[in-house]
Design a protein that fits this description.
There is one protein chain. The protein is an all-beta fold. Helices cover about 5% and strands about 40% of the residues. It has three helices and 29 strands. The strands form six sheets. Strands 10-9-12-17-14-15 form a six-stranded mixed β-sheet, with no helix packed on it. It has a five-stranded mixed β-sheet with strand order 11-19-18-13-16, with no helix packed on it. It has a five-stranded mixed β-sheet with strand order 21-20-23-27-25, with no helix packed on it. The longest helix is centred in the first third of the chain and has 6 residues. The structure holds CU-O-CU linkage and copper (II) ion (CU) (2 copies). The site of one copper (II) ion (CU) has 5 residues, from loops.
């Protein structure tokens, strides 16, 4: 399969604008799915702090990128138009879609130029909580706001009264709401450069109303470029029902205290079913452990008369259709994530470079998005079972993400692993984790750390799944 050859016609739009994209009403009855949305990437202003910050990126004026909702197995189309001066693409994180819809510049499509439209079309075989973000000028566009949740609704309704999407993201702003440097070489070479303002849906610790005594699904997405969120919900009654889009075979208790915090690295998601307190006005905070203490990221507030629901009324989420790998006959590959042996300049073509190389996979730093000589890290046969040994030889955490396929952790040298299906595994410092999957989606699939500074300074590559 050849790498994508730039063809500007393929980057041109085929369709006119469809139905308007609307933000799902937060805390309201689950909104209906959309089949066709225009997404106009543009610069905008918004008061993240108490005065407007300009130079944010969204897909609509004066508001964060909308929560998109589609229905499992049903056709979805997004016409992405670039209204910014730089190039872009859109990627649908975690969705098992056809390779040419994956939004990776040079690998699956040509970057979208100013004024051009690219029409993405796919149907998701999986229900769950996913997200979307650009994959070109990623550092700038994501750090400045362009991340949105993508919800694929189950074909069969699990019976929640409401659904609250919580997009966790930091911004690097000073007290006046002006931008600080989005990243620093020091950060990029270590754990990444942290934001100064921690937000949920672009707000600092917002409160959302939810039906008192109701059953509510929190859909938490960690879309920050750097931060690993350490989450807990003191006093919450309910369960963690899905991670990274996929239902847990056995739902887990909600972490109530700091020590039990659920770790959500960049790119990861958690679906949490809660029963809202019965009494009107009662609140439930979503907390995060941060250096020097903990803080509320969002607060759920009970509203209205007691709906009197019981957690036992929830129907378990149906498992997604995943092929089970044959471990005994699996092909084995090993990837080592660590320092870069040289300091060549990455060539990212039209998609932005940080100008440094700090990281590598198997000691080979990714030479840049536009580098034509870069071959796949591994070539897998369509349909074969695979075990990847992921070895983090650095003192930093790396959320390792594979496009187009999902895998499950089967072993770690550091901890007991949950065998849940995922597209992003958080590798702790010096952790070695084995993950298994069936290579059942053909194409060239990007494989990288989701700390964007690591991705853009070498910790990236791709895996080829070849037919025949
Ligand atoms: Cu969420 Cu390659 O990305
Ligand atoms: Cu992805
Ligand atoms: Cu990393």
């Amino acid at each position: 399969m050849p790498r994508f050859t730039p063809n500007r016609r393929q980057a041109l739009g085929l369709l006119g604008a469809g139905a308007a994209a609307a933000l799902a009403p937060i805390g309201a009855r689950v909104a209906s799915a959309q089949a066709h949305v225009p997404l106009d990437i543009q610069a905008t202003r918004y008061p993240i702090l108490d005065r407007p910050t300009s130079g944010l990126f969204s897909t609509r004026p004066g508001a964060p990128p909308p929560v998109l909702r589609l229905k499992q197995h049903e056709a979805f189309a997004a016409d992405v138009t670039n209204l910014t001066d730089a190039y872009t693409t859109m990627h649908w994180h975690g969705i098992r879609l056809p390779n040419e819809m994956d939004g990776v510049p040079y690998l699956t499509q040509f970057p979208i130029a100013k004024g051009e439209t690219f029409s993405y079309r796919f149907a998701s075989p999986d229900a769950g909580t996913f997200w979307y973000h650009p994959h070109c000028m990623t550092m700038e566009q994501m750090a400045q706001g362009l991340t949105g949740l993508l919800i694929v609704e189950e074909a069969d309704d699990p019976g929640f009264d409401a659904d609250i999407p919580l997009n966790l993201k930091d911004f690097r702003l000073n007290d006046a709401g002006e931008w600080l440097d989005l990243w620093t070489p020091r950060g990029a070479a270590r754990g990444g450069t942290f934001g100064t303002v921690i937000t949920t849906n672009w707000e600092v610790a917002p409160t959302y109303a939810a039906p008192a005594g109701g059953l509510v699904r929190l859909r938490i997405g960690a879309t920050d470029t750097t931060r690993v969120y350490r989450l807990f919900l003191p006093g919450a009654a309910g369960q963690v029902i899905a991670l990274d889009g996929h239902p847990l075979d056995r739902p887990e208790p909600i972490p109530q205290v700091e020590e039990d915090a659920l770790l959500l690295g960049p790119g990861q998601r958690a679906d949490i079913a809660i029963r809202v307190p019965s009494e009107e006005g009662a609140t439930l905070p979503l907390m995060a452990r941060v250096p020097g203490g903990s803080r509320a990221l969002a607060v759920i507030r009970a509203e209205g008369a007691d709906a009197g629901r019981d957690l036992a009324e929830l129907r378990p989420l149906s498992p997604n259709p995943v092929a089970i790998p044959d471990l005994a006959n699996a092909r084995r590959e090993e990837f080592v994530f660590g320092w870069s042996p040289d300091d060549m300049l990455p060539n990212n073509g039209l998609c932005g470079s940080l100008g440094y190389t700090f990281w590598s996979i198997n000691r080979t730093p990714w030479p840049g998005d536009a580098a034509e000589t870069a071959g796949p890290l591994a070539t897998l046969r369509l349909g074969e079972s695979v075990v990847l040994r992921l070895r983090n030889e650095s003192p930093n955490d790396h959320p390792i993400h594979l496009h187009g396929l999902i895998f499950r952790p089967i072993a770690s040298n550091k901890r007991a692993v949950r065998p849940h299906w995922t597209d992003t595994a958080l590798l702790l410092r010096e952790e070695t984790m084995d993950v298994a999957f069936v290579a059942d989606n053909p194409g060239d699939w990007a494989f990288h750390c989701h700390v964007i500074e690591h991705q853009k300074t070498g910790l990236a590559g791709y895996i080829r799944v070849e037919e025949g």
